[in-house]
Amino acid sequence: MLRFLTSGESHGQALMAILDGMPAGLKVTEEDINVELSRRQVGYGRGQRMQIEKDRVQIISGLRHGRTIASPIGLMINNRDWENWQNKEIAPVTAPRPGHADLAGALKYGFSDIRDVLERASARETAARVAVGAICKELLAEFQIAVFSRTVQIGQVKDASVWELTGKEWQLIENSSVRCLSKKAEGEMIKLIDHAKKAGDTLGGVLEIVAVGVPAGLGSYTQWDLKLCSCLAQSLMSIQAIKAVEIGLGTKVGELPGSRVHDAINYDKKGFGRSSNHAGGIEGGMSNGENIVLRITMKPIATLLKPLSSVDIRSKKHVKATVERSDVCAVPAVGVIAENAVAFELARALQGKLGGDSLTEMKRNFHGYMEQIKRF
Q1: Tens digits of per-residue pLDDT, 98-149?
Q2: Gap between the Cα atoms of 355 and 21, Å rounded
Q3: Is 363 exposed, middle or buried (0-12, 13-18, 19+ CB in 10 A)?
Q4: In 7, 110, 114, 196, which residue has its Cα 20 to 30 A from 141's Cα atom?
């Protein structure tokens, strides 16, 4: 079974990850991972840190001659800013930021310096998760499964309501500084981010993630922790600042009658299909063969240049919250992080369904399973 751990602090020497359970025989290169790491660092509204760090991964174990050998894959991403902090006198942080892990973390672990919390709670940790997801994307690609994302909304500005997963539209999204489809919406989002920056404020938004090519039957209805929807929701909710996850129609299902929610089943020479995809590709905790469609909502970043009121954890006096170097809006980057979080869960579910210690064995099982579905 695929699993991973990450370690490292925001201004520590490096971020690290160990990905265990990857089948043998998968071709992986550092450049494949670096592409995803670069995508994570772009986006209008990012802060100064992204100008310092140029994330590059080093694969330190688990590969031989460029292919996985079934042993744990060790990944390391050096923090370039670490050297700048080595000889710097760091004042203790004692004014927790509302909306951040600062106060709850200090209370939990008994820290008198909140930096012990924020160094690990920082979203910088997601770079390691993206590195893991990049490898999982390579595995999924062997089975013609791909994961995409776009920005749906920043603040009150919304992108086009629908999008087609064509090469042209995907390139427009990738070329957009806010990763949305509509050029008009892009311009309005940029103005909104600029306004928030001048006001010392921050912005959140909504992102959509779509996985295509996912076969029916990933996940299970037999146990709560095997349901694909619960695994995906947990993974996405674990991304810093995510406050909501929706699948398919999401919260709209509470407003509509069943006749307008459930997807009618049809059958043709290609097999079973649906006339719509309101379920977002998941029914009963399992993929149903349609595209998996997810939406996540990100809250505004907790670090404000014009900070809210807080209380000093040492003196107990009312103060302004700490101001750390941060982004104004990280919504575009979170789409990339979410893609890779979804890729890991789909790769894990795929391996759980197919088994196999090698890519060759997984493919053999996959072709047999797809033939079974075709003949059903």
Answers
A1: 999 999 999 999 999 999 999 999 999 999 999 999 999 999 999 999 999 9
A2: 11
A3: middle
A4: 7
Q: Alpha helix (H) ranges present in 307-358?
A: 331-354
DSSP helix/strand/coil, 251: helix
Superfamily covering domain 3-375:
Chorismate synthase AroC (3.60.150.10)
The rounded distance, in Å, linking the Cα atoms of 22 and 348 is 9
> Which pairs count as long-range contacts for 334-337, CB under 8 Å and 24+ apart, including other chains?
334/207, 334/239, 334/241, 334/242, 334/296, 334/298, 335/149, 335/150, 335/151, 335/179, 335/207, 335/209, 336/36, 336/39, 336/40, 336/130, 336/149, 336/179, 337/40, 337/126, 337/129, 337/130, 337/239
Q: Which residues on neighbouring strands pair with residue 265, listed in sequence order?
A: 274
Q: Where are the alpha helices (DSSP H) in 90-224?
A: 102-109, 115-121, 126-141, 167-175, 183-198
Amino acid at 362: M
Q: What is the CA radius of gyration of the chain?
A: 22
Q: pLDDT digit string (tens) for 233-258?
A: 999 999 999 999 999 999 999 999 99
How far is residue 130's CA from residue 39's CA, in Å, rounded to a whole number? 10
Q: Where are the domains of the chain?
A: 3-375
Q: How far apart are CA 174 and CA 191, in angstroms?
A: 19
* Residue 71 phi, psi dihedral angles, 5° rounding: -90, 165
Length of the chain: 376
